[in-house]
Amino acid sequence: MPRIELKNVSKIYFSNSVFVYALKDITLTIEDSDFLCIVGPSGCGKTTLLNVIAGLTNIERGEILVDDMPIKGPGTDRVVMFQEPALFPWLNVVQNVAFGLRMAGLLKEESFERARALLRLVKLSKFEKAWIHQLSGGMKQRVALARALALDPGVLLMDEPFAALDAQTRDMLHEELEMLWLETGKTIIFVTHNVREAVRLGNRVILMTARGGLIKKEYNISLPRPRHIEDKDVIEFARIIRDDLREEVLKVAEGGEQFE
Amino acid sequence: MLKGVSSLNSDDIVNKVKLEQKADKKKEKIYRLLIRFIFLSSLIFIWHLVVNTNIFEQVLFPSPKEVVLTLWAGFYDGSFYIAVIASLKRLLIGYVISLIIGIPLGLGMGRVNWLNDTIGMFVLGLQALPSICWLPLAVLWFGLNEMAIQFVVIMGSLLSITLSVRDGVKSIPPIYLKAAQVLGATKIKLYTHVLIPASLPSVITGAKLGWTFAWRALMAAELIYISNGIGSILAMGRELHDMAIMVSAMVIIIIIGLFFDKLVFSTLEEYVHVRWGG
Asked: What ipTM was predicted for this assembly?
């Protein structure tokens, strides 16, 4: 059953007196419980794609359906995790995790109880009373993950959430995210510029063109799980995608982009 | 292996280190207080010595002893006490009114562009005018009464509070708003649960700045305009050629200023510091 459907979605930016397609006529179906990774050179529109699904950015043309219903702005059925943790400094860890539940009208006690359960899941129980600035980068993203999961959204939208972390922390979070996905069967859309990360995590990888907001190619990754970023097959597969990606990066470097 | 060490488990060691650190912090605090005390005492002592040399005329340069006696007498007969209460009452009323108007106005200006383009420009322009310049106008408008002084106080603090709250709201990282929207914060809750708490550091900065401006405006107004505040005691000292009274009034003004800075605003700043860090 398709969870998310994009039908001829176009997003146009107007910059330096030129119209630029951030997304052009994108048609994409994302099945329930799919793990889709979107890669592409910077500026290709992959974050825009995530933002339009989140409802944070309006589209000029086309239609986005979630569970067969057209979306109207942001919704708690599709929670976004950003590259920055975007945690609220005026709230402590458990209050941050409970934020969405409080917004949904849950009472303090009940929302804190659920928040604590999620903190156990991301192994941060000891830090429930800590302030955000006291946490390391990896811990912050774990809290952000717990906060995103608190509303139990069917869809998790992740915008390069691990890009700013060191390699060891990222490895651990990959494992945790994979476990979570295997256990809960959530639909995950994961944007990254790191091809190996995409292959290590995704069921499916989409490569976007450098300019023009198009999908260049799609890859099915049917490698066995649990995977590891240093698995031979992951590296091999990533190399194939990287070659295609390099072609796109070179296009930008040569200045061969076409505006329409 | 040493007996004493092996009998300690890791929790005991952690507790021991914690206690030691606490003791060290306490020692440092006492040490810093002591240094300040010594500095102040020597300053007063030098003052005392200078007066004793009789380089300056006694009328123009009172001794610390005279000032202390004047302060004591002033509080004993109630006149200083009445003046402090009168000034603080004016200040608090004007300041609270400024906060009540300034904070929502600043919040609105930070979020709504047309408000900022109209009232924001107006407020910025008015702020270029020292608030004491409003006194002649206020006296004609309201007469020789409390309203006139309060108006000057409000014009001193309201504008600076409004502007710093606006700047604070404008500098809230947009990602907070996006995150809150994604987590289901709707329009009103976006204000009450995100915009207002997120702008807390700048609201406190604005409140502190507004307090300073209100305090200065009040003293200026009381000096010019005969009333029963501390500023008036300073003016009275000049008329009586009583230096001890003037210095006493200045000491009171400094102490009140320090009191609010250290007790009220330091506490609020600490609240922000604990959460935001840095």
From this structure: 0.87
